[in-house]
Design brief:
The complex is a heterodimer. By secondary structure, chain A is of the alpha+beta class. Helices cover 40% and strands 18% of the residues of chain A. In chain A, a hairpin with a 2-residue loop joins strand 6 (261-268) and strand 7. Chain B has 7 domains: 2-37 and 158-189, Phenylalanyl-tRNA Synthetase, Chain B, domain 1; 40-152, Nucleic acid-binding proteins (OB fold (Dihydrolipoamide Acetyltransferase, E2P), Beta Barrel), CATH 2.40.50.140; 199-396, 3-Layer(bba) Sandwich (Phenylalanyl-tRNA Synthetase, Chain B, domain 3), CATH 3.50.40.10; 404-460 and 475-496, Phenylalanyl-tRNA Synthetase, Chain B, domain 1 (2-Layer Sandwich), CATH 3.30.56.10; 520-721, Bira Bifunctional Protein, Domain 2 (BirA Bifunctional Protein, domain 2, 2-Layer Sandwich), CATH 3.30.930; 733-793 and 865-907, 2-Layer Sandwich (Alpha-Beta Plaits); 795-863, no CATH class. In chain B, helix 1 packs across helix 5 (174-183) and helix 5 (174-183) packs antiparallel against helix 12 (422-431). Chain B is elongated. Classes of the chains: A alpha+beta, B alpha+beta. Chains A and B meet through helix 5, strand 1, strand 4, helix 9 and strand 6 of A and helix 8, helix 13, helix 14, helix 15 and strand 30 of B.
């Protein structure tokens, strides 16, 4: 090899050995192998030489170029590796640091236990083919009482402690025949039965969860609470189906396949026969489905012929059943909550404790 | 209603245990609410006698007594602190191991100050029976030691409290309950009224009825020569056990029959009656002092019993004080009447008065019973008070109560689900007092007993107004006979036990009918709300549920003061107005939580809101969220107040979840008065749609009036105004093979131009090519740290008239002379639209009074401008963009921005 080339090679290799970062490396590379690099210039200078020399020197230059290219790549690998090493040395976090908080400080909120109960009820009855209906909270006297076979003087009305809203309070002289258009806060979701019977034709399977209001306030009563009404009007539906449907529901809701369910005769103006439904539990431990005590959880019955006739449905053709349940009660039983008033106080501590994770699947 | 076990056994011959009786009552529709067995707890207490009482050697106030309490305890030493303990006294002794309810302790043998004590001598208070007293109970001198105190005091009788449903007036007497139990197979009903009382004289009083609607029939009988002392022990004890206070024999007897037969009676002292005739009459406005000592004004509609001096009794509800019996009564007149339930109910409600008597009349009493009830009462008065009875006097007549009902046996199965041999059904009905008229293998016909006024009644219908006459009549026609049949089925099922009906699951539905698809649509509306609940919870808000009513003063701050929506009978004055928005409740919740030290919270509620214009169609549903307080501190992230942006983000997420297209929304100011006017906004679809959401910081004055010291931001969504999203089938996805290109633009825009306008202008420049526009910078050119366009720079001009920079007056159409901020801004934008570039507003001068049109006068000085930077994403579909394409689109964007906002590209 020619002497000048050897010197040139040593110079390049020395410089290469001295670079510590990829940018300096690149500068030498361009200076050496680039378009206007020294080696490129040497190669270009071959053109002016005699063929013999050109051949010999050309081969030497090509070898030198390959060798240098190889050395550059080698060096680059080393530099890159060192760079990553250096970066890893420099980059550190305290992995035990808590993640940054979200707005409001809580990672997630919770659903109110009543919402959860309503969702579960929708889901259970949904699988039995029920659809969901709604009605207004401000009802007329007729929907809430009269159409449900509860005329004005009926003793059942006094149990209801109704809130009245009408701009016209019944005056002394009107009390005997209170006009129908009195507005009140519904005392039960049963008015949705009437609305549905008027709006739709049987066969029907509906539930109607919603707010109801009664003028009563203590540890077991709240002036507002939630009920869920149910109505089935179909041909061939008997009291047996009522029992089956509600037994199935209660067992699914409390997730106790062998939950004892008891049916007792009772009275509601809009069903006949009327029943109250109890489940087995232990008064002492509060455990559902286990124990010698009974706890009333809902009311039900076969739809009264007068109710059907009031809604223009021929009772010879259609029969069925209706039921109603207090949702706070069911929620309290299921979650071991003791005071119904706490449901509506919106104490954040209570809501976070008894509320449900929004991502928990419903059944 | 309460009764005792022994009282029940007087009407029911039975060997059934208490448990059997309670279980059966529950089954047949007479719900047992409470069983009170005072005796059980007192069983271990014994009667005893103090044989010897010596002072305690080591204590001044104690005595050491030797007590005889019968076998096993014939000589027990007891240390006692009672001052009245003395030799020979008959006392109550609690042996060791006895639980003492009044003290909540169990007695143990022990040593008190060095003396052994083998039990305790008790006061009645310690037994949980009497009032506080000095010392121990003193029993009668002749008390025999060693008896159970419960037996001795007659406390062994169990008190059963039952709930009687409103249809069962007949079960408001012990005999009615006994009859049901007998029918249910728990024994046999004993016969009653085996004695009668001979008439000795003609009654000095007679009856007259002038108010027949309220009282069809009344009976009376006088007894003279009575002594009205205290009732005998058995009667007093029986009344006390069910919670009634014994008064005197005559009063106690009427109360007794009220509960024994469910038959209210009243007695008058004949000597206090003026004249010789009692009239069932209307009240004529006279005032009566009733037995409860209160005065009642009796109206034309109230039924009264009057003598010649005026009203003496509120018929069927309460007697008057003036003619009541007392210890000097010697001549008594017994009233036994039938009063109409509706009249009783109305009078009761009008006067706000009620009694055991009205409770029974309201639910209907046995119309065939008065004669024998009067006989029974007379009999007991003569027995207990002596004297002799007159002949019976009456007015009106027994109403016709006889009714019949038929039952097809197969209906028990088809309706009630129970397969029952027909003879069993017949047996049940007969035991309940139904009289079988005809009976074959398929059906029977019965007469309804007089006391069952709930069976086979004439149906009262209240049919919907919209029904056609023909349809109404057709569906009403079968009601009477079907109802009677169902009444009988109910009786049979009730007595047989609903538990015997087989349990059958609902048959699955074969398909969704077309009607149900309607409700599926409705479902999806509700399903949306459920998914929004999840969304908001996931964003850190917790769901609240609040009362629908709030304090009216509180509602007034939210413009919700409609009289229509005020409760007439609120439970408390702070719960008297239907809330105009759930926000009222949530702010209340923030206040409560913050007062407890939890002020950095987020809440939402999905619930009803009430405004006067929705009273006809009902309330509307609103989704409302609040955030209060400050964000938590974090390394490198300072705590900051909850802000406008966070609720706006919540709100937009909710709308997106609902299915609203965010691109079509218009945001503007003009939120209701409870928001901070400069930091709140409203949303509508397009430019003219209804406002369906509002959001922002709450008004500081509102928070101040609630003493909330932390910032609160909120959003409200009016679900019923939200556009319904239609479920559209998606178009096939076309993916571009070309890379998107991003370009940044910075515009110089006037301070009052909303960012939304700029973004929209850019997007509208080429809807095909521009796939996304993102605002990433807003800053003051003179002070790059300021990104709030309004900070320290509020437009203070009055907008009345304007001119352009040449001094020419420019007309502006339809501009109202309005000080409202929103209008001002609209006005300014309209000037800009009118003459985009040349016009630079600096100040605005007073209107020229002479001009008949409104003008805007604008001077030519520099207007305050801001820089706004956007990143525009271009997505070519057909081919790569060339440099000239990019130049063209950039030019287009700049032109569009200039045209709609007056903004220019920053040079």
């Amino acid at each position: 090899m020619n002497n000048d080339l050897e010197i040139f090679r040593d110079e390049v290799l020395l410089a290469l050995a001295e670079v510590t970062d990829i940018r300096a490396w690149d500068a030498i590379r361009v200076n050496t192998l680039g378009k206007s690099g020294k080696l490129t210039a040497l190669l270009r200078s071959l053109g002016g030489m005699s063929p013999e020399i050109r051949k010999e020197r050309g081969q030497a230059l090509n070898r030198l170029r390959d060798e240098l290219a190889h050395c550059f790549e080698e060096r680059k690998r080393v530099l890159e590796k060192a760079a990553i090493e250096a970066r890893l040395q420099a980059e550190r976090v305290d992995v035990s640091l808590p993640p940054p908080p979200c707005l409001g400080g809580e990672r997630q909120g919770f659903l109110h236990p009543i919402s959860r109960t309503i969702e579960e009820i929708r889901s259970i009855f949904g699988t039995m083919g029920f659809s969901v209906e709604e009605g207004p909270d401000i009802e007329t006297d007729w929907y809430n009482f009269s159409a449900l076979n509860t005329p004005d003087h009926h003793p059942a009305r006094t149990d209801h402690d109704t809130f009245y809203l009408s701009p016209r309070q019944p005056t002394e002289s009107e009390q005997q025949e209170i006009p129908q258009k009195i507005h009140l806060l519904r005392t039960q979701t049963s008015g949705v039965q009437i609305r549905t019977l008027l709006a739709k034709k049987p066969p029907l399977r509906i539930i109607a969860p919603g707010r109801v209001y009664r003028a009563d306030h203590d540890a077991t009563h709240s002036p507002m609470f939630h009920q869920c009404e149910g109505l089935v009007i179909e041909q061939g539906i008997t009291l047996s189906h009522l029992k089956g449907c509600l037994t199935d529901f209660l067992r699914a809701f409390f997730d106790r396949p062998r939950l004892p369910v008891r049916f007792r005769a009772s009275y509601f103006p809009f069903t006949e026969p009327s029943l109250e439904v109890d489940i087995g539990w232990s008064r002492q431990t509060g455990e559902i489905g286990n124990g010698a005590d009974w706890l009333e959880v809902l009311g039900a019955g076969m739809v009264h012929v007068r109710v059907l006739a009031n809604c223009g449905i021929d009772p010879r053709e259609w029969q069925g059943f209706a039921f109603g349940m207090g949702l706070e009660r069911l929620t309290m039983l299921k979650n071991g909550i003791s005071d119904v008033r706490s449901f509506f106080e919106n104490d954040i501590r209570w809501l976070r404790y008894y509320g449900t994770n929004p991502f928990e699947a419903v059944l | 209603m309460k009764f005792t076990f022994s009282w029940l056994r007087e009407h029911l011959e039975t060997h059934a245990t208490l448990d059997d009786i309670c279980t059966t009552l529950n089954r047949i529709g007479i719900e047992v609410e409470k069983v009170e067995n005072k005796g059980a707890a007192l069983e271990p207490f014994l009667t005893a006698r103090i044989l010897k009482a010596d002072p305690h050697p080591n204590a001044d106030r104690l005595q050491v007594c030797l007590v005889d309490a019968g076998p096993g305890f014939s000589s027990v030493q007891v240390v006692c602190g009672a001052p009245n303990a003395r030799e020979g006294l008959a006392v109550i002794f609690a042996p060791p191991g006895t639980y003492v309810p009044g003290l909540n302790i169990t007695i143990k043998k022990g040593v008190i100050r060095g003396e052994h004590s083998g039990g305790m001598l008790c006061s009645l208070q310690e037994l949980g029976l009497g009032e506080e007293s000095q010392g121990i109970a003193e029993l009668p001198e002749d008390t025999f030691p060693g008896q159970s105190y419960a037996d001795f005091a007659g406390l062994d009788d169990v008190v059963i409290e039952v709930a009687i449903t409103p249809n069962r007036g007949d079960a408001l007497g012990v005999r009615g309950i006994a009859r049901d139990l007998a029918a249910a197979g728990l024994g046999t009903l004993r016969p009653w009224l085996q004695k009668t009382v001979e008439d000795k004289f003609a009654s000095p009083l007679t009856w007259a009825i002038t108010y027949h609607e309220a009282c069809p029939w009344v009976l009376g009988r006088a007894v003279r020569g009575v002594r009205n002392g205290a009732s005998p022990e058995w009667l007093r004890r029986r009344l006390e056990s069910i919670g009634l206070r014994p008064v005197s024999a005559l009063v106690d007897i009427t109360n007794y029959f009220c509960f024994d037969l469910g038959r209210p009676l009243h007695v008058f002292d004949i000597k206090k009656i003026t004249g010789s005739c009692l009239t069932i009459d209307r009240g004529h406005g006279q005032t009566l002092r009733a037995l409860d000592g209160k005065d009642y004004v009796l109206s034309e509609k109230d039924c009264i019993i009057a003598d010649e001096a005026g009203a003496q009794s509120i018929a069927g509800i309460m007697g008057g004080e003036a003619t009541s019996v007392d210890e000097n009564t010697t001549e008594v007149f017994i009233e036994c009447a039938l009063f109409d339930p509706v009249h009783i109910a109305m009078t009761k409600r009008r006067l706000g008065i009620s009694s055991d008597s009205s409770y029974r009349f309201e639910r209907g009493v046995d119309p065939a019973l008065p004669m024998s009830a009067l006989e029974a009462a007379t009999c007991m008065i003569v027995d207990l008070c002596g004297g002799e009875a007159s002949a019976v006097v009456a007015a009106g007549q027994q109403p016709y109560w006889q009714r019949e009902a038929s039952l097809r046996f197969n209906q028990i199965k088809h309706f009630g689900g129970l397969d029952l041999p027909s003879y069993e059904s017949v047996a049940v009905l007969e035991k309940l007092g139904f009289e079988v008229m005809t009976y074959d293998e398929s059906a029977l016909r019965v007469r309804v007993p007089s006391w069952r006024n709930d069976i086979a009644q004439t149906p009262i219908l209240s049919q919907a107004e919209g029904l056609s006459t023909e349809k109404a009549a057709r569906v009403a026609e079968p009601v009477a006979s079907m109802e009677a049949e169902r009444d009988l089925i109910e009786e049979i099922l009730r007595i047989k036990g609903i538990d015997s009906v087989p349990v059958v699951s609902l048959p699955p539905l074969p398909f969704l009918s077309s009607q149900e698809s309607e409700s599926v649509k409705r479902n999806s509306h509700q399903a949306k709300l459920f998914s929004i609940r999840r969304l908001l919870s996931a964003r850190g808000l917790t769901e609240a549920v609040s009362f629908s009513f709030v304090a009216s003063e509180r509602a007034a701050r939210f413009e919700g003061t409609s009289e229509n929506l005020r409760l007439l009978n609120p439970i408390a004055s702070d719960l008297n107005q239907m809330r105009p928005t759930p926000l009222v409740s949530l702010i209340e919740a923030v206040r409560h939580n913050s007062a407890r030290g939890w002020s950095d919270i987020g809440l939402f509620e999905i619930g009803p809101a009430f405004t006067s214009d929705v009273i006809q169609q009902g309330q509307q549903t609103m989704i409302v969220g609040v955030r209060s307080g400050y964000t938590p501190r974090y390394p490198g992230v300072p705590s900051r107040a909850v802000s406008f942006d966070s609720v706006k983000a919540d709100l937009l997420e909710v709308l997106q979840q609902w299915g609203v297209s965010l691109e079509s929304l218009t945001t503007s100011t003009g939120a209701p008065s409870w928001y901070h006017p400069g930091r709140s906004g409203v949303l509508r679809q397009g430019k003219k749609g209804n406002i369906f959401a509002r959001f922002g910081e709450l008004h500081p004055a509102l928070l101040q009036s609630d003493s909330i010291e932390v910032p609160v931001v909120a959003f409200e969504v009016l679900c019923d105004v939200l556009p319904l999203s239609k479920h559209k089938k998606k178009q096939a996805l076309k993916l571009s093979p070309f890379q998107p290109v991003k370009r940044d633009f910075t515009f110089v825009v006037a301070q009052d131009i909303p960012a939304e306008n700029l973004i929209r202008a850019v997007r509208e420049a080429d809807r095909q090519l521009i796939s996304h526009v993102r605002l990433f910078g807003v800053y003051d050119p003179n002070n790059p740290n300021v990104s709030n366009k309004w900070e320290g720079r509020v437009l203070k001009t009055k907008v009345l008239s304007a001119c352009d920079n040449n001094g020419d007056i420019l007309p502006v159409q339809n501009v109202q002379n309005n000080q409202d901020n929103g209008d001002k801004q609209r006005l300014l934008s309209s000037i800009l639209r009118y003459n985009k570039k040349n016009l630079k507003i600096e100040s605005i001068h007073e209107r020229d009074e002479q001009a008949d049109k409104q003008y805007l006068k604008v001077s030519s000085r520099e207007r305050y401008c801001f820089f706004m930077s956007v990143e525009v994403t271009l997505q070519p579909m057909e081919r790569s963009l060339t440099e000239s394409d990019l130049e063209a689109i950039s030019h287009q964007i700049v032109k569009a921005v200039e045209k709609t906002t007056g903004g220019t590209l920053r040079s």
